[in-house]
Design goal:
Elements: E1 19-22, E2 25-28, H1 29-36, E3 53-56, E4 59-62, E5 80-83, E6 86-89, H2 90-97, E7 114-117, E8 120-123, E9 141-144, E10 147-150, H3 151-157, E11 174-176, E12 179-181, E13 200-203, E14 206-209, H4 210-216, E15 219-220, E16 227-228, E17 236-239, E18 242-245, E19 264-266, E20 269-271, H5 273-277
Antiparallel strand pairs: 1-2, 3-4, 5-6, 7-8, 9-10, 11-12, 13-14, 15-16, 17-18, 19-20
Amino acid sequence: MADRFDCDNCKESLYGRKYIQSDDSPYCIPCYDSLFSNTCDECKELIGHDARELFYEDRHYHEHCFRCFRCDRSLADEPFTSQEDALLCNDCYCNEFSSKCVACDKIVMPGTRKLEYAGSTWHESCFICHSCEQPIGSKSFIPDKDEHYCVPCYEDKFAPRCTRCKKTLAKGGVTYRDEPWHKECFVCTSCKTQLAGQHFTSRDDSPYCLKCFGSLYAKKCEACSKPITGFGGGKYISFEDRQWHQPCFTCSQCSVSLVGAGFFPDGERILCRDCHSNL
């Protein structure tokens, strides 16, 4: 009597039939497919032993079921992307989810170099300076309305220029008579000391430190011969063509203060009432 040769699952004879050996056990084709074949994630049917099987992230597909969710194109030999478990060819993915370059209106393909700013996207090669038309790339830039400039072009085109040296002011500076100056350029007309952050005055539109202005232009006190500038709240007395600091305005004989009091001129001298009466 011949030995039996049966399917390990259904026990039907395999003589004269196709079978598949698995783990040293023979199976008829229907049993093998039902026991070991994967189920297609798309059509939910078994993927037979003789079918080409594709799988992606633990999901299995018939070759003809592995298709783009949008356009139904076969993805068997095409690049694709998964979006919320849906398979999309690159064209459909880009049309639906990728940004468009605001300069050329073409899609910015995934993986390409791009630049994003203020909610807009550019191909790296499309993001150029409005003035010199060179790609800005990763360099600093300055937006102006809907235009973008590299820093050198912006400074050359828009930045204010120092009244003295005519070079651009990139940052900081001071304003004098509605004109911009570098701090290091805004100096006393006489001694060239920097005036930024200091008290100063002007004569004929030229700035001077207080010391130089007093020395060059201020009238001198009749008593101490020092300049009378009036800066810093300093008060002075003026009589005819002569001036005095308020503390210096005293009787020439007894030195009593004459501020707010009557006085009498006596040649170059000024006298209080008492001293004048004793003459």
